[in-house]
Amino acid sequence: MNIHLRRYLFRFIIFLPVAWLLIILIVLQSNEITTNTSSNAKLKDNNLNHRVGREADEADAFGGDALVRLGNHIVPLNNKSTNGQPSSSSEAVRVIHEKPEQVAPPQLDNSKQDLNAPGEMGKGFEVNKDKLTPEERKKYDEGFQKNAFNAYISDLISMHRSLPDVRDPGCRKIQYKAPPATASIVMCFHNEAWSVLLRSVHSLIDRTPPSLLKEIILVDDFSDMEHLKKPLDDYLKPLGKVIVVRQSKREGLIRSRLAGAAIVTGDVIVFLDSHIEATEGWLEPLLDPISENRTTVVTPVIDVIDDTTFKYNYGAVSSLSVGGFDWNLQFNWHGVPERERKRRKHELEPVRTPTMAGGLFAIS
């Protein structure tokens, strides 16, 4: 009897973990099927109103094809629910404006600047590649191959191109009363296109109050393109406030950021990508919350530059969203929670968010 009992007990001990493993696998498989089915249904109904995982960051860089692929993930400006009533703000996410008119003209130092030139006022510029000469067509194709965006079009656009003042009218009237802080901007790059990199630098210099801009630190993460070596140093030298730090080997984004952060002299570090364009009044809203509380980390609204036409697409202030994770630990954009909407006195106040994408931000 004891022998039989021990035999059954031994079989039960062996069978128990196998049974649990099978149950776990079945549950995981059913969850995956449910998730896929739900996602497919949402896509078919065009009801998916936030961006998931890599797509959340992809839409915050150059737009173009990425923006087209995410078309169903972006809530239209006149977001309506199925019953014809406006959807709740907890469901709203950032809106991409497609209307051709601009919000406000830029303040131009050079009155002779031609606003009808390619790309001016943030307008897109297109070229019929089929009508280019063989030499120009080669440049056009190589621009996409080397940069994953239309570097040929970028080279035709001024490095000082004008952009509209896309701030809400109320934002232009805000008087920041916190003690002013100086900003050190850190931009890391690897084999960046010449015109895109320099347009990023010029937009920062042109649209940042000199009293707030301490320095711009460009960290070259071991680029091997010739235009990013001595030609870049020679170009930047007369600009002042621009420092180039060169890595002796490929280090990656985080180590490169740390290399730039190690030499900053300003009160606040602002990490930016090397393919951005700053608009009027971009810096003050980032510095002010940190001036009031140095433990605050501030992220800006990131608008979209089309990767093919270089059209500047901007978002509405009423369509802010916050970052968060789902149970699969994928980063998502979510509507502003009810408790946060009640806390804010008006929609122009900064929004608290538990997480951030991590690409562009300011920190003490």
UniProtKB/TrEMBL annotation:
It comes from the Eukaryota. The keyword Cytoplasm does not apply. Gene3D superfamilies: Spore Coat Polysaccharide Biosynthesis Protein SpsA, Chain A. One of its GO terms (molecular function) is polypeptide N-acetylgalactosaminyltransferase activity. Residues 99-133 are annotated as: Disordered. Residues 184-362 form the Glycosyltransferase 2-like domain. One of its GO terms (biological process) is protein O-linked glycosylation. The chain crosses the membrane at residues 9-28. It comes from Rotaria magnacalcarata. One of its GO terms (cellular component) is Golgi apparatus. It holds the Pfam family Glycos_transf_2. Keywords: Disulfide bond, Membrane, Transmembrane, Transmembrane helix. This is Glycosyltransferase 2-like domain-containing protein.
